[in-house]
Amino acid sequence: MRSPRLLTTPARSALMSQIRSADTKPELSVRRALHRLGYRFRLHVRGLPGSPDIVLPKHRTIIQVKGCFWHRHSCIGERFPRTNSHFWIPKLIRNCERDEVNERKLRRLGWSVHSLWECRIKKWSDERLEETLQRILPK
What we know:
CATH topology: Endonuclease, Chain A
CATH architecture: 3-Layer(aba) Sandwich
Order of helices and strands: HHEEEHEHH
Number of strands: 4
Largest sheet: 4 strands, mixed
Radius of gyration: 17 Å
Number of helices: 5
Distance between the termini: 46 Å
Helix content: 40-55%
Structural class: alpha+beta
Number of domains: 1
Shape: globular
CATH class: Alpha Beta
C-alpha cells in the first residue's frame, strides 16, 4: 500500500471512509471483557450527551473507548497531520473540546465516566483488560 502522504484525494477519501466510529476492535475487546465478567450494558445511547460507547445503567457508569488519533491521546504527542492541516487541526481540537463538555454533562447527570485508550487496550492481555475493568466498575 502507498504511503498515506502520497494518496490522491479520491484514494484518501476512500481510505477515510473505512474508519469506523463504532464497533472498533478496541471497543469490541472491552465489550467482550465486560460480558465475560458478567456485566450487562447498552451501546451508544443517543439519549445521553455524546452517545457514550458503553453504558452500564445499573452501575451508573460509562466507558468511553477513545481512539488515540481522534481524541488526541498523549501517546501521539503534539503531532498533527502534515497534510490538509487547516482542516485537521481545528477538527481534532473540536473533538477534544466536545469530549470535555460531554463528560462534564454526564457527571452532572450522576454518571461515573471512564476513558480507555486504544493504544493501551491493544497492548493489554485479556486478563489485564479484565483487571482494569474490575478496578473501575462497582460489583
